[in-house]
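Task card 7
Instruction: Convert sequence to structure tokens.
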Amino acid sequence: MSNHHEALVKSQFSGQAAAYLQSNVHARGADLRRLAEWLADDAQARLLDVGCGAGHASFTASPLVAEVTAYDLSEGMLEVVEQEAQKRGMSNISCAQGPAEILPFADNSFDIVISRYSAHHWHDIQAALMEIRRVLKPGGRFILMDIASPGKAMLNVWLQTVEMLRDPSHIHNYSQGEWLSMVNNRGMVVDKLVGDKLHLEFSSWVARMKTPENIVEAIRYLQDKVSDEVRTHFEIAADGSFVSDTIMFQAR
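Output:
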């Protein structure tokens, strides 16, 4: 991972940790309810949350598994996770810092690896998936939740552009097909997959990232000029709010 990208991610997120903890988009969601269902039989499991952010997936997992390691590049995020875990009495959560591409854990050390709304920041997705595969025990599971690309070129370009304008540390949202291919190439097989929609309220979406006003105007300009196909797919509203595709899958 380039030091420049690592520094960019840290600068984008360390100051925003509290905003992410309070964010409705991150704190709630059908994906967290689904995660709880998918972890229902894992009381003895050691679980790693890669790119844990403000810790919402870790907090969902904590009562259901034996141990949670919350792992993130941002010190600010990990401080928020530690404070909130203490407040909630979740003593089985421990924190570790670093990039997804270099996991500081032994081979075969986790039963489950999860990641939520983080993979689109990973500098080298193939390296990160190799590391996830390495730290999973034989028969272990990888559960991913993220924004997904619609796959179609015109829709994909629009999504990646507004994402990068809002947050320069954004790398790429992958489509369902891309995810299935990458995971299969790493020797894992997807046995559950759910596509969904996520409504993003515009003003809080840009405020969370402290997006500069001139860039907010550029995003609004793009929203104004798009084709009907893009406007319809993303359900772009008059106030700029829109709907993104999401993906959630489990691979063994």
